[in-house]
Design a protein that fits this description.
alpha+beta; Beta-galactosidase, Chain A, domain 5; 8-stranded antiparallel beta sheet; 5-stranded antiparallel beta sheet; 33% helix
């Protein structure tokens, strides 16, 4: 009862009332009546079209409102820059029935099964109404494995390959897979109609293939009519069910679904509901973005990957609006621009990578690039140009998404002069410290919206393009609770865990209770850079963390104080590189590009230090960069039983003779400079051993 009351308090009475009503209606079969199953052959398309022109002629007019009116021959001149050979190789695999899941694993099919989970080798029911099929805890496993193929993201490499070499097989593959999906997914039956966001991603991909191949001989009248029926049904379904995303899910789903109906409304004005879809889609795109993106540009879901997903959604919608002279509000565009800036500031520019922070479900909804999934530059480049008519990066190979959405003129645009620097994003609780060759991100916030990870005061450190101290990632939403608690919980994050408990209480896969309260105490970057903050996730025990950045060195000071009584505590450091060697109890060496970094630990209490690599009991030393895939990475866990206020100090930096920092008389000595570390953290803790 206490847990249920906590959920209601956190989520609000409106959310609770809507969710209760929805679940009752679902059990009573109301959703089955509202979304009845039918066959497309019984669907009267022409009664829903306000025109007497042929479907082909209507679509030719619609294509003038799309990102491209035809596939330009100029694209062939860019194929080397855009590394199109990778797209051709992937498209050839797709034609042969081989598909990539979550940009990582590939599976080959002799015959497509749109309801098959290749991870568990089990199949979801195909003849049941979507409302009675479980998405979590089901016997067929994680439904995301089924949705991944049904998103039709493979359309984008097919179009890229066709534009590069003009092989007809890519067009025929698109249409044959589309027809196969329609045949094996009768409307409203099976798992592929459970999620409006998934249907919206499918809509976007379908329009891309439709307009790319519109006048190809394989695009027959029958195929075009079937496509129009499916697009109409998808938009109508999403529109009727969008209230669930707006009032219950309350995250990126509502933005994606709004973009889905806006896309259909603006592109196909001959549909009888087009005006409604366009207006509602635009209204919700703006209203949802304005509250989901905080004023400082950080995002409500506390996830870099979900933030990129929303940026791709908004890029698509704003560009369609520009082409069709349906401009968005200035306040919304400013907020959109702010979230792109936030991502840029947290980026390692030479690789395009970012901290693997927050939920990462593998989403890359418009993969119009050969750049790696973890490279955020292509998505940010397109968004920035659409907003400012300038580019963020000078690298030509990251321009392809922008090229497809805007045209070749974007490739010669001016490069914006935005400097990456130390700054705080206090609305979302991100604090960024930067110098010439490294940067660190610290989390410190009191949650206002649903948290994803129990990770307060987590520290993510990058040095010379490498993620030295890293976030573990997500792995899977539908796995055993031990893995969920490790990847989402405190034990995999670079912070302190007390008494083997997470900073918050796990209620379900996506719900935490007792949301962490935190306070930022200090953030400045004058003679040396320093962050200081604390959180109260352990009841009467406070964890305060100070981080000093000076020269090439990073010093982390962790204090525990309050009602301490034989508490067990553990300080975790998960490394994002493999070459880590433990020299002794308080020293590690990290090998990186011809030099070594040293990690040295001090404490006011005795402790043990163990370096785990792929341990199952306890679950330690794992990292997931791609959804559904985990890898072995080193994780240092320092453990102690404390009876009094305790301090841990961790120093990380180049292992250079006579320069590596030392501690004496309460002072940190770095290359003859002295910093009084007793001024940082809890000043009650002085006696450093």
């Amino acid at each position: 009862m206490r847990d249920n009351l906590e959920i209601i308090r956190n989520m609000g009475l409106g959310w609770t009332a809507f969710r209760l009503k929805y679940e009752i209606e679902k059990k009573l079969g109301k959703l089955q009546k509202q979304f009845p199953a039918f066959l497309y052959e019984d669907f009267d398309l022409h009664s829903r079209i306000n025109s007497n022109e042929s479907i082909l002629q209507l679509l030719k007019e619609s294509r003038k409102c799309y990102f491209f009116n035809n596939i330009s021959n100029a694209y062939k001149q860019m194929t080397n820059v855009f590394q199109t050979e990778k797209a051709i190789a992937e498209a050839d695999e797709i034609c042969n029935g081989t598909f990539r899941y979550f940009s990582c694993r590939t599976f080959q099919y002799d015959e497509l099964n749109w309801h098959y989970n290749p991870d568990t080798k089990k199949t979801a029911p195909t003849d049941k109404h979507w409302s009675i099929i479980a998405d979590l805890g089901s016997d067929f496993g994680d439904i995301k494995w089924i949705w991944e193929l049904s998103r039709f993201s493979f359309v984008y490499p097919l179009v890229r390959a066709y534009a590069a070499v003009g092989d007809d097989k890519y067009v025929e593959t698109f249409w044959s897979y589309f027809e196969d999906f329609i045949k094996k997914n009768p409307p409203e039956l099976g798992p592929n109609y459970k999620c409006g966001q998934e249907m919206s991603f499918r809509l976007m991909a379908w329009t891309f293939g439709l307009f790319a191949f519109l006048e190809h001989p394989a695009s027959s009248k029958e195929r075009l009519e079937l496509m129009m029926k499916a697009i109409y049904h998808h938009a109508d379904h999403v529109d009727k069910h969008i209230e669930f995303a707006l009032k219950s899910v309350k995250n990126n789903h509502s933005i994606s679904e709004s973009v889905g109906i806006y896309t259909v409304g603006i592109l196909f004005p001959f549909f009888d509901k087009a005006n409604r879809w366009m207006k509602r889609g635009k209204k919700f795109i703006q209203s949802e973005a304005m509250w989901q993106i905080y004023e400082d540009g950080s995002y409500i879901q506390h996830s870099m990957n979900y933030q990129r997903l929303v940026i791709q959604d908004l890029t698509w919608a704003v560009r369609l609006g520009q082409i069709n002279n349906d401009l968005f509000d200035e306040a919304f565009l400013n907020r959109f621009s702010q979230t792109v800036r936030f991502m840029y500031q947290h980026q390692e520019l030479t690789t395009g990578k970012m901290p693997n922070y927050g939920m990462n479900d593998g989403a890359y909804i418009h993969p119009l690039t050969s750049c790696e999934y973890l490279d955020h530059r292509p998505a940010l480049q397109a968004a920035w140009y659409i907003l400012n008519n300038e580019l963020l990066y000078k690298n030509m190979d990251v321009n392809e998404i922008a090229y497809w959405l805007i045209g070749s003129e974007c490739t010669n645009a001016k490069i914006s002069s935005i400097k990456q620097k130390s700054q705080d994003y206090s609305k979302g609780g991100y604090y960024l410290l930067r110098n010439d060759n490294s940067f660190g991100m610290i989390r410190c916030t009191s949650y206002k919206h649903r948290p994803a990870q129990a990770d307060m005061l987590h520290f993510d450190l990058w040095y010379k393009q490498k993620n030295i101290l890293a976030d573990a990632g997500t792995f899977s939403y539908n796995t055993d609770m031990d893995h969920i608690l490790y990847f989402n919980g405190t034990s995999s994050h670079n912070t302190i865990m007390a008494n083997n408990k997470d900073q918050m209480k796990k209620a379900s896969r996506f719900i935490w209770l007792n949301w962490t309260k935190s306070k930022m105490l200090r953030f400045n970057h004058k003679e040396f850079q320093v962050f200081e903050g604390e959180h109260y996730g352990y009841g009467g025990v406070t964890h305060r963390r100070g981080i000093i950045q000076y020269g090439s060195y990073w010093v982390v000071i962790d204090d525990l104080f309050g009602r301490i009584d034989n508490d067990s505590v553990s300080l975790s450091w998960l490394f994002g590189i493999q070459n880590v060697e433990q020299l002794n109890q308080n020293e590690l060496i990290i090998g990186i590009e011809g030099e070594h970094l040293k990690v040295k630990t001090y404490s006011t209490q005795s402790y043990t230090a163990n370096l785990y690599k792929g341990s199952l009991k306890p679950l330690r030393g794992w990292r997931s960069l791609y959804y559904g895939n985990k890898e072995i990475y080193p994780q240092l866990v320092i453990e102690s039983i404390i009876k009094e206020p305790t301090r841990f100090i961790t120093i990380i930096g180049p292992d250079r003779e006579n320069i590596y920092p030392s501690i004496a008389d309460g002072k940190l000595i770095i290359d003859s400079s002295e910093i009084n570390i007793n001024d940082i953290g809890n000043t009650q803790i002085f006696n450093l051993k």
